[in-house]
Design brief:
Function: Converts 2C-methyl-D-erythritol 2,4-cyclodiphosphate (ME-2,4cPP) into 1-hydroxy-2-methyl-2-(E)-butenyl 4-diphosphate.
Strand order of the largest sheet: 3-4-5-6-7-8-9-10
Radius of gyration: 23 Å
GO molecular function, one term: 4 iron, 4 sulfur cluster binding
Strand content: 15-25%
Catalytic activity: (2E)-4-hydroxy-3-methylbut-2-enyl diphosphate + oxidized [flavodoxin] + H2O + 2 H(+) = 2-C-methyl-D-erythritol 2,4-cyclic diphosphate + reduced [flavodoxin]
Bound molecules: iron/sulfur cluster
Number of strands: 15
Distance between the termini: 14 Å
Pathway: Isoprenoid biosynthesis; isopentenyl diphosphate biosynthesis via DXP pathway; isopentenyl diphosphate from 1-deoxy-D-xylulose 5-phosphate: step 5/6
InterPro entries: Dihydropteroate_synth-like_sf (IPR011005), IspG_bac (IPR016425), IspG_bac-typ (IPR004588), IspG_C (IPR058579), IspG_TIM (IPR058578), NO2/SO3_Rdtase_4Fe4S_sf (IPR045854)
Largest sheet: 8 strands, parallel, barrel
């Protein structure tokens, strides 16, 4: 639909060592992937698989499940086998669950060095088991569970402390010749998080999993994650992302995908170009934009659709759109590529846009 010009994108990606999380390549020249985490009890296999199916349908590429108990560990073989996307087991305190997850066929295991001091003397065995199965390990450092030794040394949760924790844990695996690793150094403050990832990116070539931990409810968490990921990805830092929201995980995936689309790191799907409205508006632009967005959600063709509040500037401002509407006098001027093709009553704007979108899809041979 859109002109096939090479997409403008952000800076050259940092060169990282590629790993495979199941079928999904992470790092190197692989596209930045979006992941999320289930909120169900992992031991509730049906509920967990149902949520994974919803996440998959919303564009999630890798899913993580929490494994805090033996019941959860026992559920892993079925979940790993039936999930449509690679499953990462998230393990904090119990080294035995790491082995269980590897045995269960999980695509990767996340461990938290701050919570796994008991793990350190088992790193050799974990490295061997993971290597035998070709399973990568994520070293997932969290501000909230940093080793007290590092807190004391650095005087708090600083970027340096987060990085030292991650690289220390990596060194333990490296001693066992294991480098099938990706790293995260999460903090709830984007400023600290950005600096930590910058330092980490400069000090190693491991693939990096970006996350702002405990980012908050949808509005605040979306902004924190967008700002932090945007800053880092624009510098070429970051190989996979997880948006953390106090909201259903499908929302995390939507936000993650939108961040990557906004940065030109993946093809744009539906792009609503709507004006902010002003004193010239002759329609409720906010409501109309929401209705058009909802009506075209999941449309099979990438479309840029303009929703403009007046005919004064509407078509001109949205010349780059595939189609759009400029409203005035209780009517909507429907335009394609900036040219008005018809005028319809306001009540028919949404259905007309849908018809035109379907026509464009049909011209491309897509139902
Ligand atoms: Fe105002 Fe019209 Fe521009 Fe919308 S398109 S912001 S209503 S001038």
């Amino acid at each position: 639909v859109r002109d096939e010009q090479p997409p403008l994108s952000v800076a050259t990606r940092r060169k990282s060592r590629q790993i495979m999380v199941g079928s999904v390549a992470v790092g190197g020249d692989a596209p930045v992937s979006v992941q999320s985490m289930t909120t169900t009890l992992t031991s509730d296999i049906n509920a967990t698989l149902q949520q994974i199916a919803e996440l998959t349908a919303s564009g999630c590429e890798i899913v993580r499940v929490a494994v805090p108990s033996a019941d959860d560990a026992e559920a892993l073989p079925i979940i790993a086998r039936k999930s449509q996307i690679p499953v990462i087991a998230d393990i904090h305190f119990q080294p035995k669950y790491v082995f269980a997850a590897i045995e269960a066929g999980c695509a990767a295991v996340r461990v938290n060095p701050g919570n796994i001091r008991k793990f350190d003397d088992q790193v050799g065995a974990i490295a061997r088991a993971a290597r035998d199965r070709g399973i990568p390990i994520r070293i997932g450092v969290n501000a909230g569970s940093l080793d007290p030794r590092l807190l004391e040394k650095h005087g708090g949760v600083t970027p340096e402390a987060l990085v030292e924790s991650a690289l220390w844990e990596c060194s333990l695996f490296e001693e066992h010749d294991f480098q099938d690793i990706k790293i995260s150094v999460k903090h709830n403050d984007p400023v600290v998080m950005i600096e930590a990832y910058r330092q980490l990116a400069a000090q190693c070539d491991y693939a990096l999993h970006l996350g702002v931990t405990e980012a908050g409810p949808t509005f605040q968490g979306t902004i924190k994650s967008s700002v932090a990921f945007g800053a880092l990805l624009a510098e070429g830092i970051g190989d996979t992302i997880r948006v953390s929201l106090s909201a259903p995980p499908v929302e995390e995936v939507k936000v993650g995908n939108q961040i990557l689309e906004s940065l030109g790191l993946r093809p744009r799907g539906l792009d609503i170009v709507s004006c902010p409205s002003c004193g010239r508006a002759q329609v409720d632009v906010h409501t109309l934009a929401e209705r058009v967005s909802a009506a075209l959600e999941g449309f099979p063709v990438p479309l840029r659709v303009a929703v403009m509040g007046c005919v004064v500037n509407g078509p001109g401002e949205a010349r780059e759109a595939d189609l759009g509407v400029a409203s005035g006098n209780g009517k909507g001027q429907i335009f394609v590529k900036g040219k008005v093709i018809k005028t319809v009553p306001e009540s028919q704007i949404v259905e007309t846009l849908l018809e035109e979108a379907a026509r464009i899809a049909a011209e491309m041979g897509i139902d």
